[in-house]
Amino acid sequence: MIKSEQHVAIMNKLQYPALIARSLDLILVRNDSERVQALRLTRSILIVAPALFHTAIARSLMCVALASKTPAEVEDDKTRRDRKEEDDEEKVNDRMSRAFIAVITELCVLNRDIFINTGGVRVLMHSLQVVRPGRMTESILGALLHLLNSPHTRAQANVDLQFIAASFTDLPCLETSRPGWGNMYGSEYRPWYHVALLSLLRSVPGVLHFCHPGDPLSLKSLVSTLYLNNLPVRKALLGVLHELLGLPTPEWTDEFSVLLSAVDPARFQEEFKLSEGFVAREGRTILPSVSKARVDITELHLSLVLYCLLEANLLEALIYVIVSEDTLISVSATILLGHILYLAHRQLPPECVNLSPAVPNLVSYAVRGRPALALSNRPHPPSPPSPTGPGSLVSVTDLTRGPDLTTLSTSSKNQAVQSVLEMLSDFSQDKTKRDVDEILNSNHVEEEFCARSQQRALSAVTALSQLHKMLRRRPAPASIFLDTVLSHVEPRPSSQESETIVRVKGKSLPKHKIPNILAKESEEAIKDSGVLTVKDAFAWNWEAIRAVFKTRAAPIVRLEDSSHKLFLKKIVHFLLPSNNQLSRCDLSSNIYSMAGIDLLKFLLDCEHTDATKLLEEFLYDLHDQLEQILTSESAHDTLLSPKNVSNTLSQHYFLFIGILSSRTQGLKALESTGVLDILNRVALQSKHDCYVKLIVSCLDYSSSTVTRLILSNILTSEQVTSRHYATQFLSILLRTRLDTSPSHLEWVIESLVNQLQDEKKLVALSALNSLDEACDNERYLEAVIALRPSLLKFQDKGLLLLIRFLSSPSGFSYLNEASFVSNQLDRWANHFNYRYVQLMEADIHDALTLHRRTEDGQYTRRLSSARPPVGAAFVLPHLYGMLARHEQGFNMLRSQQHVYILFQRITAGRCSTDDQILELKAALWAAGNLATSPAGVGLLSEQGVVPAVVRLTECCPVYSVRSTGFYVMALIASTQQGTSLLQQYGWMSVRRNRHDQWPALVPSSSTLLSPPGLTPDYNDPLLAPSSEESSESSDHVTPLFFMGPPGPAGTEAGPGPGSQLPWYRGRERAGGGSVGSGERRSLTLPHKSSAPNMMSLMGVQHVRSYSESKAEQWENQSQVADELSGIR
Asked: Where are the compositionally biased (Pro residues) regions (predicted)?
């Protein structure tokens, strides 16, 4: 009945809200239906007319929500019941409390004044401790963060989210005497603060509120809890840090090898199974995206959080945990430290990363059993830190020197250990050599304790080295199937020939003797394999068998020899499906399949008729087993049943077919035996998608028209799941090196364009997303433009993909002929610039929260409490950014008057109302996308837009505008000109693309201190190559963020004179002013070149290692340093 604001006004005039409030507040046994209807009416009023929402209804909602019990109260009630005690004021646990909390959360977003005036802030903070599902915790916290965004509501609501950290740091939470609190960190209440802290740090308002550098009760206090000798607290915090940084949840083990395999990016995951996403999922997870230079918002946010953690001295705290007494925590902290170092190398500019004194301390522990000392003339910040405040009883530093919080020990040995810990905590302060000796002598350092610390540090250094070696070899396929897909597209060198083998072995022999020597060695290898003497095939030496087949020398296996022929027959007999030997092995026994692949390649290369007969025997037997899938009453009764191919090596028979399809001779054998025909029939007629996944993922499509025909038939089959998986597999092919084969590339693009016409939205959107990723590659983009697909039926997504055509001169000419460009310029000026802001923020929220869209683009009900990993949120294509890529489009864009109006909005910086905030964001995104080309950077520089963007990012009181400015500056930094321009304002950038995993950072010359010319250069790449020199810091360094001083309850005041804080400044990364290169060393050997040292300009204090101190004694030190600097 309520359809307009007028209806709500009439209800308020008739005093109906009082009746609604009474129905909501009346909790009776038979009153549930009335309360449900009253709550539905309340939501209708809130949606139709939020400004007219009555205070009486709001207060009723607040009272019911506050009556819900927290976990501690539930435990207290349970204890009282056990003791048979009565409580007259016991709360009633209302079953509808969650529904009331949901309505209150909506009220917080739609009518903030009513929400604040009726005590909604207190209610939601209380509700955070009541709800248990993580998704509800995230929604409640999101509403509170919404209040922090605006300076008006931030001051009015006085929201203080520091209590989330109290779950880790507040001492009453750690008391074991109170029922319900002793096992809090291992109980079922754990998810609420875990998810709350993650949600807080995954939002820019949360980071700006919680990571304030001057607030000792926020992130710094949280990191300091690692110094507490409390196992549950450390485990909980390490788990949060792992998930926050995108790492898998740690396994608590004392073996480094177990944890290294658990965090390996190329590990086999559950999602890679045949019953799950299989190769399509594995490829999306492991293979790098085609978008190597496109800005990813989630990576930017990760960089911001990572820098905050480094500023909070997380590395020092992890080193302290590594050398602690608990081995489980030490192992987990070591792996976390290695990943943080890896992420810092990839995500942060080198000017913003300082690993001293943390890493030198770890090395010092490994060498001497104690931390290194800062022997410089200036003091270094002490470690561990000692924040104090009203939320804690004593300082964290004092706690680290006291007894265990959970187990009070009075043994003399533990007291000695604690005294040593007290002494070691002073080592980070400024000491001289004589002071060190006095400390060691007066404290009677226990050699046994130092020896244990040294052993743990040595193990940690070894594990870090192994982790580094592992990451250098990544990305790598996790399964043999993805490896085969890559081998189809990227041909690999064949096995070694005879002359190469002899050369590798270091022998120098005449050519006529080589065959005889290899024949003799092959005889020995065949005998060592045990094939001719042992009946049990699983007892054969399969590594020796592989060694025989991987050598392509002609005399290795001679079929004229009866023993060699028997050798081949027995192995082929083992591989035959009808013999049920290979097919009964579990999936962990890949050695048999690898040997089978080597055998098939050998049979293809061998020209002997017996080799052909053995290959045909194998293929005919496999043909019969495949045919049984269609002819049997049930596919589950066959050898290649869905259960068998999902759990055993039966699935590798399809892999053998794929290996054969990559060879001309193998393809002929597959056609002559009818295997390809039966594969096509199984893919189209079978109702089990496991066969489709195997067939699609194994065949080679690089050159054969027969295999392409099979995939084309699957793409147009009746089964939706088959079409969807085949479309996903085409997106995996895009991430391989298709540019080496133009015909293959064109076929893949054409197949994806055809899938846009699929009747199912799920399949069509999958193809659309794949094409959007493909357009980040210039050759892929030209192939898509040549097909001229119909995209506007996909509404916003289709329009944005069509706009990407404008970045190419050919696409611009094609669309400009249809007056598309001029129409879009008018549309974006009037409407779509604001729509772009909504689309970008929706994608960012979708990537950083638990509320995710499904593959068909819809939001569905979340049925599980699983927390998916953070997804990618690439910056969407913008009309101005695409036009600025070439001269013709840029000239057209520069003639538009509304572009300069957007620039004026940025320089004005008005953000008092919601409309002004939307206009300012639209202008920022337009300017940022325009700056993705050198010509656009020049235009922004002429109009003075860049300093205005920097000012908004640093000082804007609206947090969402500040975050938008941060993203826009990342777009500006996607060109060399933009990077150098931002450097003048104190913002450093990562100068490499996403595909450069381990770039060599060469010290830049002094000429790079001045920005390059800002003349239009339309052919300049978006990002410099991996070997590009890292820029040096400008002498003019400004604060990068403005944050007011914390208020009485942790709130932040607006900007005021003299209230700027030097946060995120390279100069204050490690404190102090500038230091000459002669006073500190950034390298193992001193750098004495004429150019000023980068780190000395930033004022970073470096704690010298033992090797650096010894280096001072070298007489020829300056000569060596000059030679090294010349090499660099």
From this structure: 379-388
Instruction: In whole angstroms, give the CA distance from residue 985 to residue 1001.
Output: 22
- Three-class DSSP category at 586: strand
The pLDDT of 629-644, averaged and rounded, is: 92
Q: Is the pLDDT of residue 420 over 70?
A: no
Select from 758, 770, 707, 703 the least CA-distant residue to 733. 770
Determine the Cα–Cα distance for residues 31 and 23; give it in Å rounded to an integer.
Answer: 8
User: Identity (one letter) of the amino acid at 698?
Assistant: C
User: Average pLDDT for residues 1061-1088, to the nearest whole number?
Assistant: 34
CA–CA dist 481, 106 (Å, integer) = 48
Angle between helices 314-322 and 447-472 (to 10 degrees): 120
Token digits of residue 165? 């950290």
Query: Could you count the other beta carbons within 10 Å of the beta carbon of residue 926?
Result: 26
* 446: pLDDT strictly greater than 90: no
Residue owning tokens 């090294």? 1124
133-137, 455-459, 509-513: the lowest-pLDDT one: 509-513
Collapsing DSSP to helix, strand or coil, 1010 comes out as coil
| Secondary structure in 3-state letters for 460-501 | HHHHHHHHHHHHHCCCCCCCHHHHHHHHHHCCCCCCCCHHHH
Handedness of CA 112, 113, 114, 116 (dihedral sign): positive
> Nearest CA to 1005 among 1089, 1124, 1120?
1089
> How many angstroms separate the CA atoms of 753 and 549, rounded?
42
Map residue 227 onto helix, strand or coil: helix
What is the structure's pLDDT at 336?
94
Q: pLDDT band for position 451 (50/70/90)? A: confident
The total of other beta-carbon atoms located within 10 Å of residue 274's CB is 21
- Looking at every residue in the chain, the average pLDDT score rounds to 78
pLDDT tens by residue, 527-584? 888 888 888 999 999 998 988 887 654 445 666 778 888 888 999 999 999 999 998 8
Of 280, 285, 290, residue with least CA distance to 739 = 290
Q: What are phi and psi for residue 706, nearest 5 degrees?
A: -70, -50
**Residue 125 contacts residue 108 (beta carbons within 8 Å):** no
CB within 8 A of 892, min separation 6: which ones? 821, 825, 883
> What SS3 class is residue 45?
helix
| DSSP secondary structure letter of residue 832 | I
Strands (E), 716-798: none
Q: What is the largest CA-CA distance in the chain?
A: 110
Q: Are 271 and 281 in contact (CB under 8 A)?
A: yes
Report how far residue 363's alpha carbon sits from residue 342's, in angstroms, rounded to the nearest whole number. Answer: 18
Inter-residue contact 360 to 1105 (CB < 8 Å): yes
Query: Exposure of 405 by Cβ count < 10 A (0-12 exposed, 13-18 middle, 19+ buried)?
Result: middle
CA dihedral 375, 379, 381, 384 (to 10 degrees): 60
394 vs 213, 683, 957, CA distance in Å?
A: 21, 69, 34
- The DSSP symbol for 1054 reads -
Tell me which DSSP letter residue 556 carries.
S
Whether pLDDT at 8 is above 70: yes
Least confident range from 199-213, 288-302, 358-372, 853-867: namely: 853-867
Backbone angles phi, psi at 1046, to 5 degrees: -65, 140
Q: What kind and span of H or E run contains 324? A: none
Quickly state the pLDDT bin for 503 (edges 50, 70, 90).
Answer: very low
Cα separation of 756 and 767, whole Å?
6
Q: Does the pLDDT of residue 1080 top 80, yes or no?
A: no
- Which of these, 1059, 917, 1052, 1060, lies nearest to 986 by C-alpha position? 1060
Which pLDDT band holds residue 1022 (cuts at 50, 70, 90)?
very low
In this structure, are residues 2 and 44 in contact, taking their beta carbons and an 8 Å threshold?
yes
Q: Judge whether 859 and 851 are in contact, CB under 8 Å.
A: yes
Rounded Cα distance between 880 and 930, Å, is 5
